[in-house]
Amino acid sequence: MKKLLLLAAVAAVGYVAWQKYAQDRDERDLWAEVTDTFE
Predict the structure, then answer these.
(1) Looking only at Cα atoms, what is the longest distance across the chain?
(2) Full-prediction pTM beyond 0.70?
């Protein structure tokens, strides 16, 4: 049972970390699009 709880905790932390990474990536993409120079 403890292994299952540990696995669930690791999965939750991994999911939160992935969401944070994806949000940061999307924000960087948006800023790159907005600040891109038009040549």
Answers:
(1) 60
(2) no
